[in-house]
Amino acid sequence: MKIGIPKEIKNNENRVGMTPAGVFELIKHKHTVYVQSTAGEGSGFFDADYEAVGATILPTIEDVYDAAEMIVKVKEPIAEEYPLVKPNQLLFTYFHFASSEELTLAMLKSESVCIAYETVEDPDGSLPLLTPMSEVAGRMAIQQGAKYLEKPIKGKGILLGGVPGVSPGKVLILGAGVVGIQAAKMAAGLGAHVTILDVNMKRLRYVNDIMPPHVITGFSNEYNIRKHIQTHDLIVGGVLIKGAKAPKLITRDMLKDMHPGAVIVDVAVDQGGCIETTHATTHEDPTFIIDDVVHYCVANMPGAVPYTSTVALTNVTLPYILKLANKGWEQACEEDPGLAKGLNIVHGKCVYEEINEAFGWEVSC
């Protein structure tokens, strides 16, 4: 199969769809790999690295889309890429369709086949291709939150870990999934007081078992959320509903109950965010302030640590890429039900129920 790896053109997205090590494996299986010139530089991988393992370097993104049967990316195509996608072309990347009707309509119009990393499942229902980026984003949420609590950037002026004689900061985490667990680990490691809320008691029991005593669990409901936001300095939104829009757990009217200079990091922004006031920001302009509350809502957080993120992503995507390349998408999905759950759009039809529900469409849209 002819596989294309274009350069990511989303704002400050420095990751790349595959490492040279991943390309090496595809070449070993007799596939042809086209890499756009400088696609890997942001992650520390250079054209010479890809050429050394047998990739063909192409000068433009148009050349890569034109040559490839399968496109392997990190982030969803943006408007400039929509016309480049061809009928029957296979796209394998993060899409998060439920948060963008424009993107969804564009891919439907293209009559391509879109397999979304974020809805591929393991037999136990976990999301193997979303997990590593959720791990990165969860850990980064605390790094970024700690930074934006500093007074020069309009935060409360709180040091999360405190110092002798001064109480540590308080972190509220919404969701005890991968993002929440990783955020809690980082915050607890800094010495912060951590509260993590979820509706799944099994997850809360797990958190209680593995975390130190200064990480406290609670059941997630509106009453508890309203109570905790009044006293916490940093709120991390890490709620995920597979393939669907995130629920709005903090509404605009709740912001008035938060301390001026408190910080919200909404990791769920890719799925529309779990804070009503969320809108996607970029690494170039990452924050905005509403009612004196600092919002950090960067939609591609792991893009700020591209080497770590690209290697972690290739580790988990490569086995699926090999299946798709070796067998074609139809046979690969027929043999692997978990991969088949990644099918979101097929030849002009939206085949993922949660996306149809997000836009009020019939299943056969």
Overall tally of domains: 2
Shape label? globular
CATH superfamily of the largest domain: NAD(P)-binding Rossmann-like Domain
Largest sheet: 8 strands, mixed
Q: Give the low-pLDDT segments.
A: none
Radius of gyration: 21 Å
At the fold tier of CATH, the topology name of the largest domain is Rossmann fold
Cα end-to-end separation = 30 Å
Keywords: NAD, Nucleotide-binding, Oxidoreductase
Domain Alanine dehydrogenase/pyridine nucleotide transhydrogenase NAD(H)-binding: 149-297
Domain Alanine dehydrogenase/pyridine nucleotide transhydrogenase N-terminal: 4-137
Binding site for substrate: 15, 75
Characterization of the model:
This protein has about 375 residues and is α/β, with parallel strands linked by helices. It has two domains: about 1-120 and about 305-360, 3-Layer(aba) Sandwich (Rossmann fold); about 130-305, Rossmann fold (3-Layer(aba) Sandwich), CATH 3.40.50. The chain is built from twelve helices and 15 strands. α5 (about 130-150) runs parallel beside α6 (about 180-190) and α9 (about 305-325) packs across α10 (about 330-335).
Produce a short descriptive summary:
Its EC number is 1.4.1.1. This protein is of the alpha/beta class.
